[in-house]
Amino acid sequence: MVRTRAGTCRHCLANQGTRRPLAQYDHALRVERQWSDGDTVCLSLPMDIRLRRWEKNQNSVSVDRGPLTYSLKIGEKYVREGGTEAWPAWEIHPETPWNYGLVIDERNPAASFEVVTREWPPDNMPFTHQGTPIELRARGKRIPEWKLDRLGLVGNLQPSPARSDEPEETITLIPMGAARLRVASFPVIGDAPEAVRWQEPPAEPASASHCWEGDVVTALDDKLEPKSSSDGSIPRFTWWDHKVE
């Protein structure tokens, strides 16, 4: 059995160059034959650039090249958050902008990307920003309304095509395995009448001098109703007697 990725294999070369065709969407190839010492199997993976459109995720797109899916290259800042000296815990925060939509030539999507090859890393570790031997250059625009939510996580995607008045920039994509911070489902920028102007997340409805880590002030105005007093499935708002010494 030879594992393949959907849509990436066109043929398999088995034993003295004999070609065995593959179905376009096979996930595995079973090569059944009488094997002899010295037989080899060569799996051909065409390195075409393809876009996958996620209609159920706001019409966003993912970028594949051959068997790899690519993510935006985001600068990584490591911040110590507890743990021990032997086993420290770290958070990774973005050091560079991440809220980009892709500018795509819909008539020829693959032409929207430039493949950049680099030397194989001396430490044989390709799954880092510095070590990845393949990058893609793309064009993108920032979407100012796309921000972190109240938990410090990437805000939900909104519909594509998305409208942006920001300047077009060259951005870099790297294989997902080389990225700790990942944006791999991208909005698509558009300027046609149907392009959508995204909405900023609503402001916090209130502030509090103290908020227990399990509560949120947004529960004041989230329009959610608990099923019972013990319903822990939704954020809650409670009053606490809290005094500052």
Question: Can you characterise this structure?
Answer:
The chain is an all-beta fold and 245 residues long. The protein folds into three domains: 2-44, no CATH class; 49-178, no CATH class; 206-245, no CATH class. It is built from no helices and 14 strands. The chain has strands spanning 2-3, 11-14, 18-21, 28-29, 41-44, 49-54, 60-65, 68-72, 76-83, 88-94, 100-102, 114-117, 134-142, 169-175. Strands 6, 7, 8, 11, 12, 13 and 14 form a seven-stranded antiparallel beta sheet that branches. A hairpin with a 2-residue loop joins strand 7 and strand 8. The N and C termini lie far apart (68 Å).
Percentage of residues in strands: 25-35%
Structural class: mainly beta
Radius of gyration, rounded?
24 Å
What is the average per-residue confidence, as pLDDT, rounded to a whole number?
A: 86
Number of helices: 0
Give me some keywords for this one.
single chain, 245 residues, mainly beta, 3 domains
Summarize the structure.
The protein has 245 residues and is mostly beta strands. The protein is 0% helix and 29% strand. The chain folds into three domains: 2-44, no CATH class; 49-178, no CATH class; 206-245, no CATH class.
Annotate the secondary structure layout.
Blueprint (H helix, E strand, L loop, with lengths): L1 E2 L7 E4 L3 E4 L6 E2 L11 E4 L4 E6 L5 E6 L2 E5 L3 E8 L4 E7 L5 E3 L11 E4 L16 E9 L26 E7 L70
Antiparallel strand pairs: 1-4, 2-3, 2-5, 6-7, 7-8, 8-14, 9-10, 11-13, 12-13, 13-14
